Amino acid sequence: MTDNTGRIDRSAELLMRELDGELEPAERAELERLLSDNPELREELERLSRLKEVTANMKLRNPPEEMWAGYWTSVYSRFERGLAWILVSIGAIVLGSWGAWYGVRDLMADADLPTFVKWSILAVIVGLVMLLVSVLRHRIFVSQSDPYKEIER
Amino acid sequence: MELERERDDGHTAETILVRRAQAGETAAFGELVSIYMQRCYYAALGMVGSPQDAEDLSQEAFARAFKARARLDPERPFYPWLYQILRRLCYNFTRDTSSRRRKLERAGGWLVAEARVRASVDDPERVRATDALRDRLEVAIRELPPAQREVFVLKEFEGLKYREIAELLEVPIGTVMSRLYAARQRLAVRLDGIE
Q1: What would the mean pLDDT of A123-140 be, rounded to a whole number?
Q2: Could A54 and B194 be called an inter-chain contact, meaning their C-beta atoms sit closer than 8 Å?
Q3: Which B residues 31-60 touch A at CB under 8 Å?
């Protein structure tokens, strides 16, 4: 009852409308005609009606009442924590960059340290920064090619 | 006419709340949360199938909406915008395989028989049969592809019309119907033999 593009055909559409109480009066006559001509369709309607009956007897479980009382407070706490993390991250990046700059400058200016040690420490620092940038770039790329991104507003 | 006026009044009140929230009034956003928290929670519950995760994800959706409130057009309805944030969170949550085991442990117990059914079931045998059917239905719904599951839950448990679902998901009505049809076909096969 579906075509190559996944669209349902007219008889399936009418069955669905009948099950969900969204059938227009003009469509009812059309459905009845189709049902009288097609026993398979009647069987399909019976099968889906039984399923509809089962789901109509179920509902989503209610949470404990006290959850609603503290709901807004929890939302606001989440927002505050998110904001706090942003501030901590920005501060850590600025302080880290500042510390790294002064650290490297002092390291290079240290006359007692052998040159190969200076360059090795510098290589480790540059390597770590490159790893960090690479991971961040990959994460940004993955989020941009996210197959679910079309559901973003 | 009356219904239309009520809807217009509701939309105007919501527009005012959104503007106040955008102006930095936290309490106004709190009012929006009070209006939509139940709807948001139940939508998440239908998508992830775990009360604990539904609470977590629905609260996270509000927190993100609050953070992004400056980008919201006050003239547009609030809930569809919030719902887009929520469904993105729920989709990401369900496809995240790193916590699959924990999710399976927490899933379940999100459906319950309607009160009228519970009241009419006084035979222990029938109680067990109803519980078993509910468990089978929960598992079968959980195993539906996310897009089909979402439409099925909005239709069956939130009682939305095709048009309302289409507006919420920003897809044509035909897409809503085909997803719902596919979901029902799968569930009917899974629950074959139900009485």
Answers
A1: 89
A2: yes
A3: 33-34, 37-38, 41-42, 45-46, 51, 55, 59-60
With CA atoms as reference, report the closest residue to A49 among B191, B132, B165. Answer: B191
For the stretch B88-144, pLDDT in tens is 999 988 877 656 666 666 666 788 877 666 666 667 777 777 788 888 888 899 889
Q: What CATH class has B1-109?
A: mainly alpha
The 10 Å Cβ neighbour count of residue B12 is: 10
- Indicate the range of A126-135, A143-152, B56-65, B118-127 predicted with least confidence: A143-152
How far is the C-alpha of B77 from the C-alpha of B75, rounded, in Å?
Answer: 7
* Residue type, position A80, single letter: E
Residue of A17, A27, A79 to mutate, interface with B, max B Cβ within 10 Å: A79
8 A C-beta contact, residue B40 and residue A75: no
Does the domain at B111-195 match CATH 3.40.462.20? Answer given as no
The SS3 of residue A111 is coil
Q: Which residue is it, tokens 């799968």? A: B186
